[in-house]
Design goal:
There is one protein chain. The protein is about 30% helix and about 20% strand. The chain is of the alpha/beta class. The chain folds into two domains: about 15-95, no CATH class; about 115-250, Glutaredoxin (3-Layer(aba) Sandwich), CATH 3.40.30. The protein has a six-stranded mixed beta sheet, with helices on one face. The chain has a four-stranded mixed beta sheet with strand order 1-3-4-2. A hairpin with a 5-residue loop joins strand 3 and strand 4 (about 85-95). The chain is elongated, with a radius of gyration of 21 Å.
Length: about 250
C-alpha cells in the first residue's frame, strides 16, 4: 500500500509540474507598456529567464517550451517594456485565433433586446447614462491592451468614429484597466472611442467572455447587434448596422 501511495504521489507531482498555470495578465503587466517598433531598434530579442512569457489568456509559458511560440507563422506577439526600455514580457496570440470567420450576410435590426442600464465615466471625466443617450446609436467595444485582436482592429474602429463624427452616434470603449494604464496604452496606440476604465460591472452585466466584443444599442435603448471576436467583416457589420439605424431615424 505504501508503494502505491508513493507512486501515486510521484505521478501527481509530475502532472503538477506539467500543468499550465494561468495568471491575471492585467496584474502581471501592470507598469509595463507595449513596445513600438522604434523602441525595439537595436535590441536583442534573446529571452532571458527573467523575461516572462504568456499566452493572451494568461497561460504561463515555460522557457523550455518557448521556441514554438516564436514561430511567426503560428503566433503573433506583443513585447512589453518597463519605463527604462527593458524587455520584461512577451504575450503571444495564436494567429488562427486572432481572426475567426463567421460572416453575417444580413443585418436585421428588428431582432433586439433591452440593453442593461449603465452609468459610466470615461478617462476624461465625461459621464454616460443609458437614459441620457436615448435618440443616439450607442456602439460599445469591450477590450483590453494585451488582447491582440482588440489592438489589431483599432485603426478600423477609428475610421468608423471619423465617419460618423457629428452624427447621433456614441462610441464607448470599455475595459477593466485603470485610467493610468489606459493613458499609458494611448502613448503608443490610438483609440478614439470614449474609453471607460474599471468597467467590470458592465463586463459582467453584458456577459462578456470573448474579446473583443461589440454591442450596438439603438435609439430606443435596445441591443440590435452583438459581435464576439475579430471576424474579417466585423467593422463592415458595425458600419452597416449604424447606417441602418440612422436611416430608420430619418
Amino acid at each position: 500500500m505504501r508503494l502505491i501511495f508513493y507512486v501515486t504521489l510521484f505521478i501527481f507531482g509530475l502532472n503538477s509540474l506539467n500543468a499550465q498555470k494561468k495568471v491575471n495578465l492585467e496584474q502581471k503587466l501592470e507598469g509595463l507598456h507595449i513596445a513600438m517598433e522604434d523602441e525595439m531598434a537595436g535590441k536583442s530579442l534573446e529571452v532571458s529567464k527573467r523575461v516572462k512569457l504568456y499566452l493572451d489568456d494568461g497561460t504561463v509559458i515555460k522557457h523550455r517550451q518557448a521556441d514554438q511560440y516564436f514561430d511567426p507563422d503560428k503566433y503573433d506577439k506583443l513585447i512589453y517594456l518597463n519605463d527604462d526600455g527593458d524587455v520584461k514580457a512577451f504575450v503571444f496570440t495564436k494567429i488562427e485565433d486572432a481572426y475567426t470567420n463567421t460572416p453575417q450576410e444580413h443585418i436585421d435590426i428588428s431582432k433586439k433586446q433591452k440593453a442593461v442600464y449603465f452609468n459610466i465615466t470615461d478617462i476624461d471625466g465625461n459621464q454616460y447614462k443609458l437614459d441620457d443617450l436615448k435618440g443616439k446609436v450607442i456602439v460599445m467595444n469591450y477590450w483590453f491592451s494585451a488582447c491582440r485582436p482588440c489592438v489589431l482592429e483599432m485603426p478600423e474602429l477609428n475610421k468608423l468614429v471619423e465617419k460618423y463624427r457629428g452624427k447621433d452616434v456614441v462610441f464607448l470603449g470599455l475595459t477593466y484597466h485603470v485610467k493610468a494604464n489606459i493613458k499609458r496604452f494611448l502613448q503608443n496606440f490610438e483609440f478614439n472611442y470614449h474609453l471607460i476604465p474599471e468597467a467590470q460591472i458592465e463586463i459582467h452585466n453584458n456577459h462578456v467572455k470573448v474579446y473583443p466584443t461589440h454591442i450596438v444599442i439603438d435609439q430606443d435603448g435596445y441591443i440590435v447587434l452583438r459581435e464576439e471576436g475579430l471576424n474579417y467583416d466585423t467593422v463592415d457589420i458595425l458600419d452597416k448596422t449604424i447606417e441602418a439605424l440612422l436611416r430608420k431615424q430619418q
